[in-house]
Design goal:
This protein is α/β, with parallel strands linked by helices. It contains 17 helices and 13 strands. Helix 7 links the parallel strand 5 and strand 6.
């Protein structure tokens, strides 16, 4: 059953219209086609979906795809139907389906039409579904957004922890592929342990974004003026400014407007219509700047975002990486500027104080890394990549001089001396 490289490329072309694999895709796809447990760690936008969609289309049987959000599943199913134009090839199984719809899905699976079955982890615990899936041919199980398994991830979902025992009930030899954009070694260990895939072939892409410039500035009472000055200097460029609270979002957007910057606010407190209006204004470049809470950005693909400013420091390095990652998607410049004051860390600690102790401990550990990032005098890129378990040559590596500490080591030395005195 030797897989020829040419067959693989032909299938890639046939199903997706792409001529080349992106990054580590080919290795991941090959590993899964060979029936190996596989672990793919790639940044957002790295092309993880194809890593299980292509093998699913090529293999006999139905692949079960576990995904945490109905919106994510719907997107993927629509996209794959767009590609294959065959109804039935991808289905979502969830609690919103009518009995008739469930019957149709089951029929398509039994008939061998359905290649991808998207399910939320809680649906998968249903006895009725387990029995049915046990009776049909499953090609493999894909666990998308696998960091949901770990309390150290940013989106812990306890139901993700039952997956191993459910797969065992279907057939314990079914190959599992786990996929995530979370690169921290702790989360990866949790995933491997919890899914019982210690034998997995692991593929980890680099998380380095060489075109992004990282900078941290002390946050003073003049932070608004500092931001205005920065934005005016970057007049006409697209940028995102993240704030912690909705109130601050609205205030800062107003301050910017008053100062002649075209800006809109964005947070989850606005109704859906207003949110999509502001989002479109930003995407269509009717405005340069969006001032937002973290509610903004999921699934937003504006390639030419030139700066991401954090008015408030985020709660983890991963959040920071994700949020700054929205800059420079087109490989053009992207300036990532964070304003930092220790009292903001204390504020974030306070927010957690009503949470369970275990959660607080994790939250605090993540925050301490943010403090270390903000206060370090080493290459910020090296710091961040080290946090993700990745080595970085801060002399010759790609983007080695793209941060404030590396560009201006002298200023930093002086600053340190001042502290010592
Ligand atoms: P991830 O899940 O890793 O965030 P996606 O699977 O959503 O990423 O893919 C991101 C984008 O990359 C999609 O628009 C997808 O169509 C595109 N893409 C994936 N693989 C390829 C490829 N081999 N060639 C070109 N584009 C690709
Ligand atoms: Mg994805």
């Amino acid at each position: 059953n030797v897989l020829k490289k040419t067959d693989l490329h032909a299938s890639l072309k046939k199903y997706f219209g792409f001529s080349e694999f992106k990054g580590l895709q080919e290795g991941v796809v090959t590993s899964l086609l060979q029936g190996n447990n596989t672990f793919a760690i790639m940044p957002t936008g790295g092309g993880k979906s194809l890593c299980f969609q292509l093998p699913a289309l090529m293999k006999e049987g139905t692949a079960i795809v576990v995904s945490p959000l109905i919106a994510l599943m719907k997107n993927q199913v629509d996209a794959i139907r767009g590609i294959s134009s065959e109804y039935g090839i991808a289905h979502v199984l969830n609690s919103s389906l009518t009995k008739t719809e469930v019957r149709q899905v089951k029929q398509d699976i039994t008939d061998g039409v359905t290649k991808l079955l998207y399910v939320a982890p809680e649906s998968l615990t249903k006895e009725e579904y387990i029995e049915f899936l046990h009776s049909v041919k499953i090609s493999f199980v894909a666990v998308d957004e696998a960091h949901c398994i770990s309390e150290w991830g940013h989106d812990f979902r306890p139901e993700y922890r039952n997956l191993r025992s459910i797969v065992n009930r279907l057939d314990e030899d079914i190959a599992i592929i786990a996929l995530t954009a979370t690169a921290t070694p702790k989360v990866q260990e949790d995933i491997i342990k919890n899914l019982g895939i210690t034998d997995a072939t692991t593929f980890k892409a680099s998380f380095n974004r060489p075109n992004l410039f990282y900078e941290v500035r002390p946050k003073t009472a003049n932070v608004d003026s500092d931001i205005i000055r920065f934005v005016k200097k970057n007049n006409g460029k697209s940028g995102i400014i993240y704030c912690l609270s909705r109130k601050r979002v609205e205030e800062l957007a107003q301050v910017l407007q008053v100062n002649g910057v075209s800006a809109v606010p964005y947070h989850a407190g606005f109704d859906a219509k207003t949110r999509s209006k502001y989002q479109d204004m930003f995407l269509m470049e009717d405005v340069d700047v969006v001032v937002a809470t973290i509610a903004f950005g999921m699934g937003i693909d504006k390639p030419d975002v030139r700066f991401v400013i954090h008015h408030d420091i985020p709660k983890s390095i991963e959040s920071y990486y994700q949020e700054t990652g929205r800059a420079g998607r087109d490989d053009g410049e992207g300036h990532c500027l964070a304003f930092y004051a220790y009292k903001d860390i204390e504020k974030l600690e306070k927010f957690m104080s009503n949470k369970p102790v275990a959660e607080q401990e994790i939250g605090n550990a993540l925050l301490q890394e943010v403090v270390a990032y903000a206060e370090t005098s080493m290459s910020r890129r090296k710091f961040m990549l080290h946090y993700f378990g990745e080595g970085f040559d801060d002399v010759n590596g790609l983007g080695a001089d793209m941060d404030d500490n590396t560009r201006n080591p002298k200023e930093k030395e002086e600053a340190k001396e001042n502290v010592i005195k």
